[in-house]
Design a protein that fits this description.
37% of the residues lie in helices and 11% in strands. It is an alpha/beta fold. The protein has one domain: Glycosidases (TIM Barrel, Alpha-Beta Barrel), CATH 3.20.20.80. The protein has an 8-stranded parallel sheet. α9 links the parallel β4 and β5. The relative contact order is 0.16. The mean pLDDT is 96.
Length: 362
């Protein structure tokens, strides 16, 4: 790795394993309330919706879920740092009362490259995640001075919650090198090679900022392309693996691919977390993936809980190929907006493997 200073305060494998052993099996969803189309609608004061958050997290608790992966956004800090922190605290309190903790995500390279604060455009009908936004925007990633001004955001949030047991970990950057290829706003994103080079440098900075705070929870940034074998890692992936306390990854493939990813990461001797999985149309289902994750005691967050303004029950391909009717099967999501399951066999499997929860059907 080209950033040896990052390992100075990295947790030992033993400390990371002890942390995870102190927790229940972490199983849950990537959570955005159904009334929010993106991270900004989730967290901005005007659209923050604690009633929906409480209701929907209650349904997650009914399934025996113990953790939610939740995306933050730098613009919410820029607008109102104190209010943003209080809203994070409120969500953590709601979740804790239901027996649920959180994996919080600082940055994200996916989807719209030019986020703007304030009221968000309405979702494009029947298009997957049509209003999701990058954090930070492409212009900030490109400008070193502007990016450096995000240090107070990262360290402010970490400092506030550094000793908070409601937080299971910190995911510093989601899919850093992901790109808007094929979307109508592709021209607003950074060129692919430039983006990869820049986010490698920026992610190293974010790890360094986080290490200065030294939170009591582990740091991670998930790898998401390839089979994760040590000799196949890109420079960015090597940074993610070698700087993280807990190794996290995404997998939307068949169970044998999932098994291989887990095995390739397990050789590092650290806990392994799967922070995204379950895309029915891509071959990743609860029936195929969750038993594998349970057997290996790999923390597991599927994409989506309740179908809503994110529209991620529609497939990725709706950006290119429109749909005029509801998808069959649903791509992501577990529950209808009224809390009823999309597939009762799935929710029964989740409850059986978690060993908890009441039936959302009744």
């Amino acid at each position: 790795m080209n950033h040896p200073h990052l390992s100075a305060t990295r947790w030992s494998p033993e400390r990371a394993q002890a942390w995870c052993s102190s927790l229940p099996w972490l199983v849950g969803a990537n959570f955005t309330p159904s009334t929010a189309s993106n991270q900004l609608e989730f967290w901005q004061a005007a659209t923050f919706d604690p009633a929906t958050i409480a209701r929907e997290l209650g349904w997650a608790a009914d399934l025996g879920m113990t953790s939610m992966r939740i995306f933050l956004h730098d613009l919410c800090w820029e607008q109102d740092p104190a209010g943003f922190l209080e809203r994070i605290d409120r969500v953590l309190t709601i979740a804790e009362e239901l027996g649920i903790g959180a994996l919080l995500v600082f940055f994200d390279s996916c989807w719209y490259p030019d986020p703007q604060p304030g009221p968000q455009p309405e979702p494009i009908p029947r298009v997957h995640n049509s209003r999701w936004v990058q954090s930070p925007g492409a212009a900030v990633v490109r400008n070193a001075a502007r990016f450096a001004r995000l240090q107070p955001y990262v360290q402010g949030v970490l400092t506030r919650f550094a000793q908070d047991r409601r937080i299971h970990g910190w995911d510093l950057w989601n899919e850093p090198e992901n790109h808007s290829t094929g979307k109508p706003y592709e021209h607003l994103d950074l060129p692919v090679a430039e983006k990869t080079d820049l986010v490698t440098e920026r992610l190293a900075q974010v790890f360094a900022w986080a290490r200065e705070v030294a939170p009591s929870q582990p740091l991670t940034s998930g790898i998401w392309q390839g089979d994760f074998a040590a000799d196949h890692l890109s420079p960015l992936q090597r940074l993610q693996v070698e700087a993280s306390d807990v190794l996290s990854f995404h997998n939307y493939g068949a169970p044998e691919v999932l098994e291989a990813c887990i095995a390739n990461l397990a050789v590092h001797g650290r806990p392994v977390w799967c922070s995204e999985y379950m895309a029915r149309g891509a071959g990743s289902t609860f029936a195929s993936s969750l038993p594998v994750l349970h057997r290996h005691r790999v923390a597991a967050w599927n994409w989506g809980l309740v179908a809503g303004r994110c529209q991620t029950e529609y497939p990725w391909t709706t950006w290119i190929t429109p749909m005029t009717t509801p998808p069959s099967p649903w791509f992501h999501e577990i529950l209808h907006p009224d809390g009823q399951p999309y597939d009762a066999q799935e929710t029964a499997l989740i409850r059986r493997l978690t060993g908890g929860g009441r039936s959302v059907e009744g």
